[in-house]
Amino acid sequence: MATRTVAIQLIRAAIAPAAARGLDVGYVLREAGIPAALIGEDAARVTEDQAARVIQVLWSVTGDEMVGLGPMVIPRGTFRMVTLGLIHTPDLRTALRRLIQFVGIGVGFEVTERAGEATTTRMVVAPGGGTRADQVVGAIGIVVGHRFASWLIGREIPLRAVELPEPAPPHSDYPSVFGLVPDFDAPAASIAFDSSFLDAPVVRDEEELVAFLRNLPGALLFRQDYHPSTSSRVRRMVERRPAPDLLTVEDVARPLNVSAQHLRRLLRDEGTTFREIKEDVLRDAAIAALARGHETVDELSGRLGFSEPSAFRRAFRRWTGSPPGAYRLAQG
């Protein structure tokens, strides 16, 4: 049941430049198995595989690694060439400085490294030429930079702060993406982290890089649990159960060697609850199953532990704003 989904806002933002150019975004969505009607539903979600497929098809039809989201076209193969220039650096400090040089020369963004407190480094990503900062574009930029930096040194770099331009959206995955809630209405997108990571050695080689590049965009866009949080540990435990709704907080607290009360407190500190995690797992499993189309709604309802299909239908509409049948359209 270990399936993750992403908010429709990522898909909406990704296809918008192609639509503005008159390209056939209906074809892009069909190739990814996403019903076009979901694009207008704010609470809709798609699987990570579907989201990755959207980006891959957009790469093909636009010839742009930023799929039109950036201030200039980035030819296919640019990211590969940039990363080949980083893989042989001795440490993260050198890699980031070289990345800043590459980005400034040919990507159309301005990336700056700013010392914060004595122990904090802040990386700022902004569009070049004084272009207005866009929240989704900025978020993608800092996600890609953070994930690749973590991959280079073989361990996650915990973030101390994240800033994004524009107001907070009503539906987003930002807390799970970054591991914390960002501050919004900032002049540009930025991340802050412990400066000690700058001295971490680069531990990857070209062979590993080639394998990493084969897994794009998923390897960069979707969360990798190098340093699992309490909520991610709980989620993995819930995902392993065939009927998550029957699982209690005591069932999960016991193998974690904490009390149920303490577990609730830890989850609350991370901005979630045990019930929300269970609902997220059920929602994501339901969306993935509906996209595959191998089960009837009644069969899916029973497998997920619902007492009757009508209860599942009500829950699904609460989760996504749509009935299960809207996701069946993904099968054509």
Topology:
Blueprint (H helix, E strand, L loop, with lengths): L4 E3 H13 L4 H8 L12 E3 H15 L15 H7 L7 H15 L2 E7 L4 E8 L7 H19 L5 E5 L10 H5 L10 E6 L11 H9 L3 H4 L8 H10 L9 H5 L6 H10 L4 H19 L4 H7 L5 H12 L3 H5 L4
Antiparallel strand pairs: 1-2, 3-4, 4-6, 5-6
Helix pairs in contact: 1-3, 2-3, 10-13, 13-15, 14-15
Q: What is this structure, in a nutshell?
A:
By secondary structure, the protein is an alpha+beta fold. The chain contains 16 helices and six strands.
Describe this structure in words.
With 332 residues, the protein is an alpha+beta fold. It folds into 3 domains: 71 residues, no CATH class; 137 residues, no CATH class; 102 residues, Homeodomain-like (Arc Repressor Mutant, subunit A, Orthogonal Bundle), CATH 1.10.10. The chain is 49% helix and 10% strand. It contains 16 helices and 6 strands. The strands form 2 sheets. Strands 3-4-6-5 form a 4-stranded antiparallel β-sheet, covered by helices on one side. It has a two-stranded antiparallel ribbon with strand order 1-2. Strand 3 and strand 4 form a beta hairpin. The protein is globular. The two termini are 24 Å apart. The mean pLDDT is 88.
Strand content: 5-15%
Strand arrangement, major sheet: 3-4-6-5
Task: Please tell me how large the radius of gyration is.
Answer: 21 Å
Number of strands: 6
- Termini separation: 24 Å
Low-confidence stretches: none
Instruction: Using the alpha-carbon principal axes, give the shape.
Output: globular
Mean pLDDT: 88
Order of helices and strands: EHHEHHHEEHEHEHHHHHHHHH
Counted by DSSP, the helix tally is 16
Main beta sheet = 4 strands, antiparallel
Summing up helix and strand content along with how strands pair, one would put the structural category as alpha+beta
Helix percent band: 40-55%
- Please tell me the total number of domains: 3
